[in-house]
Amino acid sequence: MQSTVTHASGTLTGSWKELSRDMSGELSGSVTPSGFKVAIKGSELNANMDIIVKENKQIIEIQFINSSLIGLTLVAYQG
């Protein structure tokens, strides 16, 4: 996965590309008090993603839209 994201006045915009399946699209979102809220849009994949930073961990929650995939949650601990 590769992405290019820009931030201006609390708003996120950019593009993404999934390399192994050759999918790509646009993303938009906002900075929240706890991290980021992002909408991912492409011709083959649409999803909403929340990135939450809390104490020593980063939580990424993805909810897929109109997909056989339901969603996933990733938790990364920073040590």
Structural class: mainly beta
Proportion in β-strands: over 45%
Query: How many beta-strand elements?
Result: 7
Average pLDDT confidence is 92
Order of helices and strands: EEEEEEE
Oligomer: single chain
Fraction of helical residues:
under 10%
Form type: globular
Sheet with the most strands: spatial strand order:
1-2-3-4-5-6-7
Low-confidence stretches: none
Largest beta-sheet details? 7 strands, antiparallel
Distance between the termini: 24 Å
**Number of helical elements:** 0
Cα radius of gyration in angstroms? 13 Å
Structure explained in plain terms:
With 79 residues, the protein is an all-beta fold. Helices cover 0% and strands 72% of the residues. The chain contains no helices and 7 strands. The chain has a 7-stranded antiparallel β-sheet with strand order 1-2-3-4-5-6-7, with no helix packed on it. Strand 4 and strand 5 form a beta hairpin.
